[in-house]
Amino acid sequence: MGQNYSQLTDGERNQFYALRKAKMPMTEIANQLGRSRATLYNELARNTCLWRGLLYRLLLSA
To answer: For the chain, how many helices (H) and strands (E)?
Structure first.
C-alpha cells in the first residue's frame, strides 16, 4: 500500500553534492543514484536550511 522512504546514505550524499557541484542536472543525478528527484530536492532543501542557520549563528557570534 504505502512506500518506504529513506534519506540518502553518507556515500550517496557525498556523491550527490559532488555531482551538483559539477552542474549535472537533477534528473541525471536521480537516475545515477537510483533515487527520486523529490528525495534529492528534499535533501537539498534540508541541508541548505541547516547551513544557512549555522552561518547565521556564526555571524551573530562574531
So the answer is: 3, 0
